[in-house]
Amino acid sequence: MKLSPRLKAITKFIKYNSIVADIGTDHGYIPVYLIENNISKKVIASDVNEGPLNNAKAFITKKGFEEKIETRLGNGLKVLQPDEVDTVIIAGMGGTLIKNILDKSKRITETINNFIFQPMVDSYNLRKYLYENNYKIIDEKLVKEGERIYEIIYVEHGKDYLENEIYLLVGKKLIENKDPYAKEFIQNKIQKYEGIMKKVEKSKTVESKKKYEKLKRERDSLMEVIKWL
Q: Which Gene3D superfamilies does this chain map to (predicted)?
């Protein structure tokens, strides 16, 4: 089967012969792809909503992979037991939600080796949590699908040091690797910042002034990063 560029990029981080949990599997496309292409030997596909999970079940059955892909209804990593999988994918959710999923299941996360995250928003909050909770960002990738650029973050356990606050806004690996979409990604961020700054600037409250100054500092930092690329 053919995956979208976003989903295909996620699968590139999966190690051969791994046992994977796809949290928030939606239609079950990634689990089927991993089994169909002999990348994983077993996949657990979970979703918090019964409707999407039933769609995934139907697709898995159609492909004849019921023995290698198990579906589970449940919230976050609570569908898993310790040492049950070595790799977890959490894609298509907000960064704050991903952070909360990790934080509520530390007994499970301790037994998982590899994490692939694809936050739709709030990657700042997710990266901050990772730096503060003994996760190490091994690699990051940007992928463009239509008009939108998505962030993919590959993580393992280990101590990582935040050398510069800018790495919470734009992943260090994206800058180091000079990701092909990094410049466009940052330019889009700058445009959003400037749009918010114009609105905030109209308010004369003390809080608004503080917010404006914070936005301006971050906008200026992003403009500096573009010079590094």
A: Vaccinia Virus protein VP39
